[in-house]
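One thing: mind reviewing this one?
=====
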Amino acid sequence: MAPDAPDWDALLDAARALRAALAAGRMVACAESCTGGLAAAAITALPGSSAWFERGVVTYSDRAKHELLGVDTDLLRRCGAVSEEVARAMASGLLRVAPVDAALSITGIAGPDGGSADKPVGLVWFGWAWRDSGGMQVHAQSRVWSGDRSAVRMASAQHALLGLALRLAPPAR
């Protein structure tokens, strides 16, 4: 693991930040690819997580992204699984099929191989979708992490959890 990669305690802190950002009674879900369930594992490591975590799905293959989240196969073919469009579709798809108020998605290239010039190893796309008074909101963002496979996966899970916490936190007064 890279020296600057988060450890399990940092990942748990990110899950705690998400829990703190949630209004009472709100539920979240995770759609993960390259992290293989790390974000969901961090959430469920916290006592009482069943009060705010509804489900996690690992959609490692394109087929799983399509079958479980409704990601369009043409979109997957045109943009590739590691793209802004697919991260958005994963998060919004999970929000549509799960009885939750917010969802996160993670899709990327953890390495050590599988990268290309335009999609290098360490590239990860994140999607966050949530319901508010204006309907469904969806945001996406990418990061390129350095380090080995474990470092990329840990940093990605932490970033996804903190990203959703940031978007769900009540505005500062």
